[in-house]
Amino acid sequence: MIKNKKKICLIGLGNIGYYHLYSILKKVKSSKILVVDKSKKNFLKINKKFSSKYLKKRSINLTFLKEVNFSNNIFDLVILATTSDVRLTIIKKIIKKNMIKNILVEKIAASSLAEYRDIQKIFYKKKIRNYINFPRREYKVYRYIRNKINSSSDEIICITNIGINWNLASNIFHLVDLMYFLNNKKKIYLKINKLENKLFSSPRRSFHELKGKIIFQDQNKGVLICEDLAFKKNTKLFSSQPIIIETKKYIFQVYENMHRLIIIEKTSGNIKSKIFKTPLQSVLTYKFMKKIFNRTIGLPDFKESYSNHKLLFNTFADHKKKNIKGNLKFKIT
Description:
Strand content: 25-35%
Order of helices and strands: EHEHHEEEHEEHEHEHEEEEEEEEEHH
Structural class: alpha/beta
CATH class of the largest domain: Alpha Beta
Number of helices: 9
Radius of gyration: 21 Å
CATH topology of the largest domain: Dihydrodipicolinate Reductase, domain 2
Helix content: 25-40%
Number of domains: 2
Strand order of the largest sheet: 10-13-14-9-15-16-17-18
CATH architecture of the largest domain: 2-Layer Sandwich
Distance between the termini: 33 Å
Shape: globular
Number of strands: 18
CATH superfamily of the largest domain: Dihydrodipicolinate Reductase, domain 2
């Protein structure tokens, strides 16, 4: 239970923003919530699920605006769930006339490394506690694997994620952060780039994606292999592919959609199966809020995540410069 009345601002009510708001309204009490989005479509949708009677009973004040044109607020938490290209502009607008105690930013945290640095400077100057939403750090299954590796003086050999149309350019930020988390924050480098020499359309309008294969390596020679096979003809994969984490002692197969972990002990060949819930954002946001207010959240801030964002921004910029013709700006979110 979150104690004391909180003032929350959610900016961006698209797909992920909708689930942030759903999670908050389902659990929170005695709060003022300001929602900002250009479209009122999802706000009307959420109002059908949570009636005015429900909100009144829980002492929730829910307000909607189309623009960031408010002032004189002290927000306990701002959730920024817009596309990456407007993040810096929105942050500048908010802090001009408002105070922010905590902010949760969706990945990708900015549209470029330069904008990432600018945002980081603002948070430092204004003393805003900031977090990037890499939720796997809070999944019990990955905390279990991390503890298992640490407690047995084990080391990661390889993390593999292979799938079809999983939006590699955008979602690889999650996987690089997962490797960084599991390997106790050892620096990660690019090893092999076998990405396709063209840009693909992203599910989000006016943004792009990359397909192909890319491999990263950490300081201990552990590797992260990520591959999107959509460009290959007649490729057959199950709809739920595991994230495979191989260490010197174990092979962990994480089936997130099935909430299952398979553990293979290399020496004995023993196989164990465990059930771990991998909650959706519609469940996670309220839990994250509680941990943010208690300062126990395990999500990285801009300072911690800088080297990984720099690695990926530079890798993609270099790939486009060397391999993709034309002046089209590569935009990911």
